[in-house]
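Course assignment 3, question 2. Fill in each field.
Student: A.L.
Task: Predict the tertiary structure for the chain below.
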Amino acid sequence: MATIFSKIVAGEIPSYKVAEDDRFYAFLDINPLVKGHTLVIPKREVDYIFDLEDDEFVALHLFAKSVAKAIEKAIPCKRIGIAVMGLEVPHAHIHLIPINKEADMIISNPKQKLSDQEFAAIAKSIKKVWDSNRNDL
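Answer field:
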């Protein structure tokens, strides 16, 4: 059975896409810790990140790096934190979280409530940076 992330990639479930190439997809987390909290996934459904083939594992991280650089330019923050937990959805994924202090990375923190307009504006600003600087990020 396809995961919710596979359904997002297939367009069966809407998402706030910020970046995409032939192998990977990045979109805003709909239960964000902070504005700009983004998930990066391989399009190929693999449950556990360490079950990815070596080349795909490396490529996923390089893609995530380019997305993180775009987030950093689009969202005011000191750094982009990265987390891989893998228990929420059985589909390998990386959390990219804009942070200004270490406490911003605490997954049990209250989630932000954003409107569709806020999500769309955030996604548009990150996607614009990623699209225009894709080869330089």
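Instructor remarks: The longest helix spans residues 54-74. The CA atoms of residues 70 and 130 lie 5 Å apart.
Grade: pending
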